[in-house]
Give the backbone structure.
Amino acid sequence: MRSAGQRVRAHILKENGELNSDDVLDAAVSFDGTWAKRGFTSLTGVVFTIAVDTGEVLDYHVLSKECRKCSLKKSQCQSDEEFVEWQTEHLALNQCDVNFNGSSPAMEAEGATVLWNRSIQRHNLRYRWMVSDGDSKAFNAVENMYDGYKVEKLDCVGHVQKRMGKHLMNVKATTKGKLADGKPIGGKGRLTEGRIKRLQKYYGLAIRQNTLSKANPTEREVNVSVYTMKKNIIAILHHSVHSPDPAKQHRFCPVGESSWCRWQQDTATGTSTYDAEDCLPEVFFDLLHPTFMTLSETKLLERCVRGATQNRNECINSMVWVRCPKHKHHGVKVIRCAVASAVCHFHNGAASRVSVMNRLSIPAGMFTKKASEKKDKRRLKKSDLQASAKEKKRRQGMQLLRTRREEALREAEGITYEAGSF
């Protein structure tokens, strides 16, 4: 992780030539926590910080509310005084695994405090920008961690994109009866789950296509990016709802042959590929307008300008629990080994075990090296396939097909399950 910190510093210095190599540099990190047990009753939790610019793990911390030695010794001692005497010596030797005494949900905030406190000492970096999902008070715990510098929160674009789907599902669930045109909100040609998924996808693209890759963008660059995001989000609303005047309906859509809007393409090329029947009826404009206004607020989009996600955090979280599954109990020492192994694998793949074995004076044999290389090649091949445009389109098509099939079945069967309805 020391090398990962050095690479982050080199990246920041390359983009900002006026900075000195000995300065404390400001970096953007994604932060997330994970627990050894579901249900917020876990005795062990892990938090990670990953550099947004390089995608490497900068630091992690394992929090534990249990010490197996303490539990075992307490059951063996004849009196409380005997256990207290032993525990005092146990703590003095720094052998106790307990490093947290709060509730399980509070582990994430405590872990963030630990990692932010030692960022300058470990990497000579200030974690000035924090990409988080807003599920805990982690950001509030570190917001004023650095003297004279305030930590800024960035939102995960993936989580923000899901808000569109959640808002529209809530609108659909809370709108009872018929709309002004005498028809319900759902059904064919209306606000179906498939339509909601499409609008959610378009909303995510409107943000992602206008993000900035610079480590420290200027205020003007941020303002331009936010303005373009807003314009594209409003264009989605107007484009998706039918209007008697097509020019007014598509006035916010990009113009030219390369536009994603078929109407604008037809206008530029003289073709007729646009299908007006694919739009929602006019009555939906006023119904959806508040949702689009809420999700295009300036402050929200400013937190999305970097285009950062927590995908890497979710990836390494899953790698930890592959090594020690959640359905079995594992002590904190096993989890620490699993976390260290996951970090090595996350950075260098399966081949990292060869270097670990060499450090332990256990020379890796020919078959170990070949197996590690083969595993990495297979993983990279699968990753390249999943990242291809053809494969993405296939997955999206399959997901849309499943959604439409499920909607058709529900409509044909009617209500078959609802709390307290039968």
About this structure: DSSP finds 18 helices and five strands in the chain. Strands lie at 25-35, 44-51, 57-64, 125-132, 152-155.
